[in-house]
TrEMBL record:
Gene: Ccdc13_1
Annotated organism of origin: Alaudala cheleensis (Asian short-toed lark)
Name of the protein: CCD13 protein
Membrane-crossing residue ranges in chain numbering: none
InterPro entries linked to this entry: CCDC13 (IPR038929)
Single biological process term from Gene Ontology: non-motile cilium assembly
Amino acid sequence: QVLAREVGEDVNIQNLLSNAGSWRGRAQQILLLQTRVQELEHKLSQNKIRASLLGMDEGCGALPDPRKLSVQEKNLLKIRSLEKEKKESLEKLTEQHNTLQKIHEELKKKHDASRARNQILGEEVRMLKGQIGTLLEKGKHDDELIDALLSQQKQMQEILKGLSMKENGTMGQPLNTEIQKQSTMIEELRELVTERDAKIKILEEEIGKL
């Protein structure tokens, strides 16, 4: 009876005795089955942990307890964490790069607009300086003409003073007429010079504002 309890009630004792090498006791079978069950449970636990680790990036499952993880599982967890940090860092750097690219493009547009404006201003300055140069050159000729007319007028007045009464009657009138004409011309030239100086001043102020 003891032997039957050990090997099982349904086991033929005679067959067991004749084939003792191929039979195992019930206790040994139970131990093997328990070991197999533990192995299967461990594999099932590992599969659940791996599934949890693989679903971390999508938010599937909570982080497992590190104390219950094997070395391989801890390494896998660390790799996943590093990959996540790398992905976040790359996204952040990409965003910063895009922002800097936009700033660079805006600054380039402003620089190009400023350069174009500087070219336009440079042309305006050259044009205004050319106008000033023309006015100064013309003013120089006007000044020379005024000086010549004044000198000629002075000579006529000297001649007029030296004429006798008789000569003054015949020649004085034409000289006086010519002197008046020259005086009018000199006054007109002086007004032109004044206008020229005013224009030059305005042009110089415009250049100063550019």
